[in-house]
Each structure stands twice: as C-alpha cells, then as structure tokens.
Amino acid sequence: MKYLLACVAATWAVSAMSTPPSKPIWQWTTEERLAARFDEAARTRRVEAFEAQRAVSRARATSSAGRAVALPRRPADSVHGSDHPELLMPFEIFTSFTEAAYGADDDVARHVQRDATAKASKLGLPPEFLPALRKQARAFIAMQREERTLKQQLFGGGMTDPQSGMARLRALQKAECASRADAMRKLRATFGLGFDEFLYSAIAPGVFRDFFEPVSAEALRAEEEGCK
Q1: How many whole angstroms separate alpha carbon 75 and alpha carbon 77?
Q2: Residue 162 and residue 153: Cα distance in Å, rounded?
Q3: Who contacts 112 (Cβ-Cβ below 8 Å, separation ≥6)?
Q4: Does residue 159 contact residue 153 with C-beta atoms inside 8 Å?
Q5: Phi and psi of 128, rounded to 5°?
C-alpha cells in the first residue's frame, strides 16, 4: 500500500457514480462509503485505469532508459482522491494530512500548512481550526513520527532486534488508530461537519492510495472506529 499527499488543487469534482447518495460526500455514512468502494465493477474499472496509466509511464521510462522497465504487480485497488474523493475513508484523509503537514519540520510541511489554512478559511472555518486540529492530534502526530523512524530502522537494516521492533510497530499502529479516532471525534464535536467538509474538499483530492494487498470493508470500518 502506498499513499502520498500532494499539494491540493484549488478546485475539485466529485466523480459520477451509478447511484450516488443525494448529499455532499462529506455527509456520507461509513456504510455508504464502503458500499461504493467495494462495488466490484467500479473497483475493476479503477484498477484497469491505473494499469493503463502505468503502461504509458512504463513506455516512456523504457524509451528513456533504452531497456524494459519492470513494474510492480497488479494492485488490488487504486483509490485516487482526484477522481474518487468519496471513496476515501475520513481516517485515510486525516492520516495523509497530518503526515504531510506535521510529520516533519521542513519547507514542504510548512507549505502544506499554509495551503490548508487558506482552504480552511475559504470554507468558512475559523482561524483557530488548524491550531485546534494540530493540538487535538498532537499524540497521534508524535506516534506517526515514531512509526516512520521505527520503519526506517527496521527496513533499513539498522535494528539489532527486528523481532522486538516489529512487535513495537504493531503496538504503535494500534495505539495510533485509537488516538486518531479520538482526535477526529473531538474535532467533529467542536467544528461539526465543517471538519469533514475540510477533509473532503480541501485535502482528499490530493490523496491517493494504491493497494497491492486486498483490504476488507471490515478492516476499514474498524480503523474508522478506532480499532476497538
């Protein structure tokens, strides 16, 4: 699974669906979102579109390199917020945003913060929205940073006891799940649907996730609920 947060475009469009709920996508329920995401025909179309784009990229890379370029195996799913923001779960968008905006102290993170502040203002959210988001997610952000460092050590060969490192990683990810859900719950209590509108209109179009292992609706639902 790979996901990145790019700088979000100023405008976005909701992709057409066969039977979309007659309400803004930030008001969709978890079950409505999962039903759309696990529609098999739609999932197949997403994967085929991903493969077609990858074939174009491969042809260009092969032409440039003068030899065939190997590509990863076919994904189980490909969910790009630029095309299908409604399919992303709120926790996926929130995770991508906090990682991009607060996962490091560098110019890229500061740019993401400025961009998010401007978009939040356009949505009518108060000036304290982003500071409140960062404050509520402080513990989660700290765990995200720890997870990134731990993965670098584990997969970079810099850990003398990988078994204990993997155990720590699993425990950390479970704690992150609960902490993230708690932060999101508190932000909704303070800002109402404005919080979800921010996620889906300002952030989701720049989030993409390509899944090379199947992910179940049950697993996504559990993460959304805090892995209780």
Answers
A1: 5
A2: 9
A3: 5, 7, 97, 100, 101
A4: yes
A5: -80, 0
Among candidate residues 214, 209, 218, 206, the one with its CA nearest the CA of residue 78: 209
Q: What are the residue ranges in the chain where pLDDT is below 50? A: 1-19
pLDDT reported for residue 69: 58
Tokens of 67: 């030899």
pLDDT at site 71: 63
Residue type, 95: T
Q: Are 133 and 187 in contact (CB under 8 A)?
A: yes
Give the HSE-up count for residue 151: Cα atoms under 13 Å, Cβ half-sphere.
9
At 227, the amino acid letter reads: C
What is the Cα–Cα distance from 113 to 129, expressed in whole angstroms?
Answer: 12
Domain ranges of the chain: 2-224
